[in-house]
Amino acid sequence: MVNLTIDNQKLQVPEGTTLLEAAHKIGIHIPTLCANVEIHHTPGACRVCVVEVERSRNLVASCVFPVAEGMKVKTNSDRVRRARQTVIEFLLSDHPQDCTICQKNGHCELQSIAEQIGVREIRVPRTDFTHHRIDDSSPSLIRDTSKCINCLRCVTACAEVQGVYCLTPEARGFNCKVVPAMGTSLMDAVCVLCGQCAVVCPTGAIVERDEVDQVWAVLEDPHKHVIVQEAPAIRAMLGEEFGLPPGTLVTGKMIAALRRLGFDKVFDTNFTADLTIIEEGHELLKRLQNGGTLPMMTSCSPGWIKFVEHFYPSLLPNLSTCKSPQQMFGALAKTYYAEFAGIDPKNIFVVSIMPCTAKKFEASRPEMNSSGYRDVDVVLTARELGRMIRQAGIDFVNLPDEPFDAPMGQYTGAGTIFGATGGVMEAALRTVYAVVTGENLPILDITPVRGLEGVKEATLEVGRLGEVRVAVAHGLANARKLMDQIIEGTADYHFIEIMACPGGCVGGGGQSLPASNEKRMLRAQALYHDDKDVQRLRQSHENPAVKQLYETFLHEPLGERSHQLLHTHYVKRGV
């Protein structure tokens, strides 16, 4: 332990603690733009967090400077305040003055810190932004280099959290900007479009592609029957957009808000999450019994799929051929539901509310049109839905709870836990066990696959199949570890679940900001509460609406119509 003094307050902290962390322990908030709770190793790039250390000639960056025995620190001296203001002035001089129309207006950390430290003028010449460009090549993310402040958070998150290494700083000084390698566009780079860079970006340099206006336009079109689906994680975090505590379950209010926005039918992605388990569970059984490619890997996360296509194309046969629940829903909306409702599928417009920016890319994939039409027409993130609700002047917090519409609104607890890392695995094992043994698992809660540990393992005795060994990883850097083990032949698993984002969908690139592991845990707990304490049915094969779907339309899992509508293929991509 190390003894030191910060602003005349004595404290004791473990050796290796940074000054930023030490100050936080005694309630002193030091502003910073590059340090972030999501990033383990701060780059120490912004210099906003400088403090004064006795007998040190220069101010030091508190986010990277370690404590030392007897150290005396000032975090709010005149020298420190003037230095921070100067740093922010330089950043603002190289930043557009379009705050009122920026997507991050009101949520921009540069904006907040400028106010916090009292910047009232910019005393240096401003930059001409005519040479900057906007990269809008991707259906998921928009990059505006004029708003980049070189904090390097996105670079660190892309490398450390995701293991993708797509982004890098280019040039020096005022010309330095973060770009994909060789200055290419996101769609020409190895970007998996997961949006974790947008989650940590303090400004509007990387944001989701906003498609709210397109949805407003189609809601006004009297010739379109507009239906909406929402991912399981949305109900556990949408309340945060309106000031409710993280992990507040707002399913009924969410449905009510969507109806008031003008959607003709409010359905649920959980319906096709249950369907995914039926198809994926039978696919796993077929591989186990017939000597298919193992380990089989889940295919629900589009960022993960693109990651495999780029970096591990030799493992594409290991991926489940099942579409994600989002895409299954879209295909059925324009076939099964169109037939059920007697509506021409060309007049059905499907909107998805997702916690994920990569879902926008997934919906645009050319193979996602097995119904003869694009499966999903528009994908909105949770943040975009929050903006729509505010634009409409809806008092979200005081809305009554309303139910989903039939026939694609009924779901089980197994469907809802898809939103947390390990949820797909848990749901699949519940159903596989029941299909093989004819009995339900004695305990449906499979806790070894839950939680935020990077890689989790479990073994389950499943009747005549014997031991089924499974693994779960979240965050693509953790996925790399498992993929490398498979390549090396040291991964002795039958089934692997991967979610591209930390925590799974509850930590997706389109979720409410700011992000933290504490929020992810609270959101996951809300989904487990929905599974265990709210839902009467907890296993996907028990969903009566899914049973009716098979009886009247699909006929059997892995059947001809199921393969046509619910399964897909993947593409080898370059690196």
Q: How would you characterize the overall build of this protein?
A:
The chain has 575 residues and is an alpha/beta fold. The chain folds into three domains: 75 residues, Roll (Ubiquitin-like (UB roll)), CATH 3.10.20; 85 residues, Alpha-Beta Plaits (2-Layer Sandwich); 354 residues, Rossmann fold. It is built from 19 helices and 18 strands. The strands form five sheets. The chain has a five-stranded mixed beta sheet, with helices on both faces. Helix 8 packs across helix 10 and helix 8 packs across helix 15. The longest helix is centred in the middle third of the chain and has 22 residues. The chain starts with a strand and ends in a 9-residue tail after the last helix.
Task: Please give a quick description of this structure.
By secondary structure, this protein is α/β, with parallel strands linked by helices.
Write a concise keyword list for the protein shown above:
19 helices, Rossmann fold, four-stranded parallel beta sheet, 14% strand, 575 residues, alpha/beta, globular, Ubiquitin-like (UB roll), Alpha-Beta Plaits, 34% helix, 18 strands, five-stranded mixed beta sheet
Mean pLDDT: 94
Widest sheet, order of strands: 2-1-5-3-4
CATH class of the largest domain: Alpha Beta
Oligomer description = single chain
Based on the structure given, which CATH architecture of the largest domain is correct?
A: 3-Layer(aba) Sandwich
Percent of sequence in beta strands: 5-15%
How is this fold's topology laid out?
Layout: E1 2-6, E2 9-13, H1 19-25, E3 50-53, E4 60-61, E5 71-74, H2 78-93, H3 109-116, E6 134-135, E7 141-144, H4 153-161, E8 167-170, E9 177-180, H5 196-200, E10 206-208, H6 212-219, E11 225-230, H7 251-261, E12 265-266, H8 269-290, E13 296-297, H9 302-311, H10 325-333, H11 336-341, E14 348-354, H12 358-364, E15 378-381, H13 382-391, H14 413-416, H15 423-437, E16 455-462, E17 466-474, H16 476-488, E18 495-499, H17 517-534, H18 544-554, H19 560-566
Parallel strand pairs: 1-5, 11-12, 11-14, 13-18, 14-15, 17-18
Antiparallel strand pairs: 1-2, 3-4, 3-5, 6-7, 7-10, 8-9, 16-17
